[in-house]
Amino acid sequence: MITFLLRRTGLAVVILVIVAILLFLMMHMIPGDPTVVALGPRSTPEMREAFRQMMGLDRPFIEQLGLFLARLAHGDLGQDVWSRRPVLTMILEVLPYTATLALASFLWAVTLGVLLGCIAVVHHGKWGDWLIGLVSIAFVAVPSFVVALYSLLVFAVWLNWLPAIGAGEPGDLAAQLRSLILPSFAIGLGWVGYVSRLIRAAMIEAMGEDYVRTLRAYGVAERRITYRYALKQALLAVLPVIAIGFGGLLTGSVFAEIVFTRPGLGKMTYDAVMSRNFPVVMGTVLVTSGLYVACMIIADAVTAVLDPRVRSTL
Amino acid sequence: MATDVASIPAPPIAGEPGIPRRMALTFVEVVSHPLGAIGVLLVALIVLTALMAPVIVPYNPTAISVKERLADPSLTHLLGTDQLGRDLLSRVIVGTRTAMTVALTSLAVALAIALPLGMIAGYGPRWLDALFILLFDSISSLPMIMLGLAVVVLLGPGVSTVILVIVLYSVPSYARLVRTQTLSLKTRDFIKAEQAMNAGTMRILFRHVLPNVVGPLLILACLDISTVITLEAGLSFLGLGVKPQIPSWGNILSDGFSVIRNSPVPVIAGGVPLILATIGFTFFGEALRDALDPRLNPERKP
């Protein structure tokens, strides 16, 4: 078990190093002065000089790359080119906002998705199942930023029920929760469809297993079989997939944060792109890939704990 | 009482249906499913609009008319106008063409890159395979929209940047599919027979592996169209995709978002076609996959 996790973690570190190298190469592959490429034509000569020193751009290429990776290994993601603040500090400041948003979307979406999946299974083959299937695919297909825009239009502009901007004042829990509703709705909607389809498929598979046939033969009530046995097996099967998806939710927040002007990782990356603040963009991309890979390891670990068979195959 | 083998009538060999007939059969199967029928209708509507765009636009989509700013829908402007007085219906129609052009171009480029890469990974030496897989895994672990933002900050916004982002995002998953298919084909008898007859690697790859790989790959690409359309619209919405003067659904949404408190019309006009397109292509892709190759359904276990 431990060797399995170590191997997965080792692979994850290798992947992150490659991602870092790719980002570094991207900056160098583009023709022209890398400082101008990274900081834009409006940057001042002082800014470019600072960036050149920070990245060690006047040294040989391999040394630059080594320097860059060594700094990353120490947790130094560089500095904001405008404010000169360490990028890592800036990310840690906004991460709680994005994490809260992702968690809220995750919780309501998985709850509703599991519920819809169960209803579909109970009505398997009837129109209720068909309707839930149709709605689920539609939820998956609709772009989350359009959902964000339309929910903003309906609930904030027309009905004026919920705030359109911000994350609520610190300390004011009610306001914070109220401003969480619309963004988490927008991000979670696609997940409702995704989870309900996964649960439905996993439960239908579980219902076909031998032990369910035995339970039926013993006269166990169908409700009890559905919710006590099939749902349990389906949840265990779906859990790792959902854990990987949580990493995706963290970045899915980009659009919701921009539409609702919420502080967070996505908003910060977007602002950095608009002001050509390359170190910040690089830092957030690395951190989000790191979180994503971490979620993948957790998913693997969960699978390995639940199903000892995979430990040898992965 | 041994039966004379020769007297048993041979089972009739079913004639392999020709390609046009098979396509017609697939089409019937797709449409017979309600999901597929809705999908085909929406896809047909979108594709026709995109093809006919220059003929059916009522106005020049970029003509500015300050007097008619943010006009409500009326008989002269069926969907109203935006904050510069540009006719929204015309912008939506030309936006359909932009969306389809970007989606199809980038998917074609991605397929053209992924096919050889995947075949080399599957058929070539093992170390090369391992290297490719590691590279694909690394790119896949970059969140798509973050990858897009990183590319945009370096290359600047524009159609070619959007296409590059989509290609970067889709090549790993396509190449992986090609690789898996190639690996399983490699052990099949007809390939072994070719190898035994000393056929060149190129001949085996292009004459025998390629035709067997293309089908599943096209289904995957079809399922991907709505993601690709969403990505283009999303980047354009952020002001990082198609240039603002070119009509695209994302740009209409972006303009509409800035005036959402004055008029809801632009946001609705830009979002509805996008929703119809993503739903249409997803329904169509799902129905096509179920008709052609249900094994590709990730919800089914092998």
Automatic annotation (TrEMBL), chain A:
Query: Biological process (GO) annotations?
Result: transmembrane transport
Q: Which UniProt keywords apply?
A: Cell membrane, Membrane, Transmembrane, Transmembrane helix, Transport
Q: Does the keyword ATP-binding apply?
A: no
Q: Where are the transmembrane segments?
A: 12-30, 94-122, 134-159, 179-199, 234-260, 280-306
UniProt subcellular location: Cell membrane
Q: Which SUPFAM superfamilies match?
A: MetI-like
Q: Specify whether Calcium is a keyword of the entry.
A: no
- Membrane disposition: Multi-pass membrane protein
The residue ranges of the ABC transmembrane type-1 domain are 95-303
Instruction: Specify the protein name.
Output: Peptide ABC transporter permease
